[in-house]
Amino acid sequence: MQERLKLTLEACEPLQGKSVLDVGCGTGRFCFPLxxxxxxxxVGVDFAEAMITGARSLAExxxxxxxxxxxxxxxxxxxxxxPFDYVIAVGLFDYIKDARRLMHKLRKLTRIKAIMTFPRADxxxxxxxxxxxxxxGCPVYFYTERxxxxxxxxxxxxxxxxxxVGKLYFVEAT
Length: 174
Known about the structure:
Blueprint: H1 2-11, E1 19-23, H2 31-36, E2 41-46, H3 49-61, E3 68-72, E4 84-89, H4 99-109, E5 110-119, H5 125-135, H6 145-154, E6 159-165, E7 168-173
């Protein structure tokens, strides 16, 4: 997780005065460092009320509530008055059945760059993870590099950087 955070912060440079949307934000793990590094406005969305409650509480504790706003909403129902400079979807596509539909939505919300991760299909752990999570009632989805690139192209993104980070593809797209 630390490496993904580091790469995400680097990918969002420059941050001064910029807006960021973190999709599937959880308790704000990425939101707070983005605000601390100069983002003017950070919005985190997650469909889990407990995560949003936790994120709001942490924002108050960290004295970042003026820069960080959290909404409990399905991203497909989320509306913004204008696109965000940066859109982050890290650790999200693992659980998204219709990745292309979500990418279309993210494209509409992105002004400068989207940062996304996709679990790789070519790791030895992928089949084990698929079985374990499916048995637990949580379907998980894996990607080849070709599939990631095709989805991004079809949804209007241009890949500016795609590389392997452990068991993931880390993508920067414009």
